[in-house]
């Protein structure tokens, strides 16, 4: 099975840490949607979209990348890091209404956050993603490819 993870990680590189853990453990390909806007994804069986959460949404460039490049009838999954550690994936699926895809999983963990007033108190989620988060993410990915 050929897989790729498309990511955007602009605040503290939290999401990139999660993606990199999966890349180094599982040998999956990854691409940064901040620097790459176009890619032919037709040869991939499983496509992940990974993002920090900004104002309750995936990064706009991840959404744009998916709108522009995701072929129909692919298996897709989501990885997100956020202050609230919640499943924010509806914010991307609702932007892909014209496409056909099968969501096979979503992973969320806390990410260090110093946005706005949180900076004044040293931020939230300090140290996250931590080793346990990274291990959980790798297990999550392995579970998708069994
Ligand atoms: C501009 C901005 C807005 C954010 N909005 C939210 C939010 O709505 N909900 C949340 O749980 N976390 C929010 N966060 C925290 C980030 O989602 C969290 O720090 C995430 O791990 C950042 O990922 P990154 O380092 O990969 O960019 C926000 C952070 C920033 C900088």
Kindly describe this structure.
The structure is a single chain. With 146 residues, the protein is of the alpha/beta class. It has one domain (3-144): Flavodoxin domain (Rossmann fold). It is built from four helices and six strands; from the N terminus they run βαβββαβαβα. The chain has helices at 14-26, 60-69, 90-93, 131-144; strands spanning 3-8, 29-32, 46-54, 57-58, 74-82, 101-110. α1 links the parallel β1 and β2 (29-32). α1 (14-26) crosses α4. The model has no long low-confidence stretch (mean pLDDT 97). It binds flavin mononucleotide (FMN). Flavin mononucleotide (FMN) binds at residues 9-16, 52-56, 81-84, 111-113, 115.
The residue-averaged pLDDT reads 97
Please state the second-level CATH architecture: 3-Layer(aba) Sandwich
- Bound compounds: flavin mononucleotide
Give the amount of beta strand, in percent: 25-35%
Structural class: alpha/beta
Count of structural domains: 1
- Poorly predicted regions: none
Annotated CATH topology: Rossmann fold
Distance separating the two termini = 10 Å
Number of helices: 4
For the record, what is the CATH homologous superfamily label? Flavodoxin domain
Radius of gyration: 14 Å
Annotation, overall tally of beta strands: 6
| Helix and strand pattern | EHEEEHEHEH
GO molecular function, one term: FMN binding
Pfam families: Flavodoxin_5
InterPro entries: Flavodoxin_dom, Flavoprotein-like_sf, Protoporphyrinogen_IX_DH
Protein name: Flavodoxin
